Amino acid sequence: MAGDGIEDVVVACNSTKKIRNVSNGVNAFEALGGTICAKASMLLQSVPPAILVRFLREHRSEWADYSMDAYLASAVKTSTCSFPGLRPMRFSGSQIIMPLAHTVENEEILEVVRLEGQPLSHDEVLLSRDIDMLQLCTGIDEKSVGSSFQLVFAPIDDFPDDAPLVSSGFRVIPLDMKTDVVSSGRTLDLASSLEVGSTAAQASGASPDDCNVRSVLTIAFQFPYELHLQDSVAAMARQYVRSIVSAVQRVSIAISPSQSGLNAGQRILSGLPEAATLARWICQSYHYHLGVELLTQSDVAGEALLKMLWHYQDAILCCSFKEVPVFTFANKAGLDMLETSLVALQDLTLDKIFDEPGRKALFSEISKLVEEGHVYLPSGVCMSGMGRHVSFDQAVAWKVLGEDSSVHCLALCFVNWSFV
Known about the structure:
Blueprint: E1 10-21, E2 27-45, H1 49-58, H2 66-78, E3 89-102, E4 108-119, E5 131-138, E6 149-156, E7 168-174, H3 197-204, E8 214-226, H4 230-255, H5 262-268, H6 275-290, H7 302-310, E9 315-319, E10 327-330, H8 332-338, H9 350-353, H10 356-364, H11 366-372, E11 374-377, E12 380-383, E13 389-392, E14 394-401, E15 407-415, E16 418-419
């Protein structure tokens, strides 16, 4: 199809036609609608393909528009594309991944991804607003070495045998793949962003070759349409793919091994004080409220203190001290517990990670927290960002005070946590 003057996204149309009878017994084809595909490609430098695909899989909220997912799911369920007349929806930002099958070495994984939706009106409370995606992942294992890495998905409706699969997704093809390019042990928690210099790459498991990886990422999304809405859907598809390209560019910068160091961490933690300053506030406030040191070496400062807090064995989380506390920082153990990254951390809120008993225990101690500055929470169970249950022996929450003694945020430490 004709572009809009900027040829960064290619839009193609595959029309669906039916035969109808016209005068004198002559048959003719009548166009009903079809599928529009919007595709873009980009060159990636210093971005390990397996890490990128894993990040796209585990942190959908970083690049996807849930209203667009709802549009595609609605098209599958109703076999029509009533754009833009969809019911408004709000999504929790969380996703539940349900494995279906995988190969022996996990080179390929077939799974269902459920996006949890919430109705915006009381009249729709009883209606299911969840969206299910059938998803195929290739090459996301840390040790994967192959000719391509991909994440392909399609909305589904209760697994009917004849359901149409309008698939979309990502494929990464390395240009100069070596057997040791995709390093093992490198995690998605952006640990390297909080390390210093070359030590960061070694600590995260990233090999020097990671900084020289070149690959081509192809992004392709399909959109069903009706004939009278073809131009509107094409324009929507073009803009949506452009927004995804921008999101992938931001993610690529964050996970690139060449971006290791404190500066990258500070870019991710935009709006926060310098990471080292935040670490000092956390430790000083812990000692002020509880009368004991959080870390064994109380005389360290600056980047050394930050590294100690980052590698602390228990999960430490920070969230805003507001009516709806949103997470703003976590150490490595905290990111591992929540199964998230510094990039996606702000998609999680404090109330979402606790089960009902945990929320009651926390809310019952709010007044004590405000008055005394800290509270202890009994052992319990919380939820990771991927929907997995996490048990912990004890948790302590305390107010983090800034330089002017005002409350900057709320810190929590989960002791001896493990996945159930």
